[in-house]
Amino acid sequence: MLPVVQVFRRDAPGQWWPEGADVFQLLWCPNTHWDPPFPQADASPVVEIRWRRAADLTPAPFRPPAPVRQEDDDYGFTPLPCLLTPIPLTDFPYPQELPGGLREDVRRLVEETGGEEGGEDIITRVAGCKFGGWPTWHLTEPYTILCRQCGAEMTLLFTVASDATTGITVGRWGDLRVFSCSADIRHGYDFDVH
Q: How far apart (Å, rounded) are the C-alpha atoms in residues 169 and 173?
């Protein structure tokens, strides 16, 4: 497993943090898994999420072992070392999920920022990593993901988007999305690549 991202609660406050945790870590296997274990996404890296306490982390950084690659080195699941700059922002849901007047305003902004064609829309498809917000729907129409334990609607917890800065390429320049149960984060996660 390779460390992909580590985020401190102070840099990304929100309702997604479990009680007692102030560090979020996302790790993944740097290889494509075509038949991954449930509930991982097909044709993506297998992901592990860890919620930690900063007080329990070792102060000295360690160098993870080199990954055993089954793909070409430039395939994209081996992130380049970098620092994330936390930036609070408001992203928007897919325009079809908005009420009429606002839908047209967002659609206009999408067109002004590169349009939906080619997926370069920076209004409803934020680049980089993000907590919360809205999932992108550049490949399909929006659909609801339900918790397998309680049936509650799952919400977007975290996104790792393809990004030239980090060197990550997910699928065909897409996003790895992690959804969590809106009723209880302990119900687990649902992963997909979009």
A: 5
Give the containing element (helix H, strand E) for 159: strand 154-161
Please report which helix (H) or strand (E) contains residue 108, including its range. Answer: helix 100-112
pTM, full prediction:
0.82
CB-based burial of residue 172 (10 Å sphere; 0-12 exposed, 13-18 middle, 19+ buried)? exposed
Torsion on CA atoms 46, 50, 54, 60, rounded to nearest 10: -40
DSSP annotation of 153: B
33: left (phi over 0), alpha (psi -120 to 50) or beta: beta
CB atoms closer than 10 angstroms to residue 19: 6
Residues 25-73 have pLDDT tens digits of: 999 887 777 777 778 777 778 899 999 999 998 876 667 666 666 566 5
For residue 154, list its beta bridge partners: 181
Q: Enter the DSSP assignment of 163.
A: B
Helix (H) or strand (E) holding 107: helix 100-112
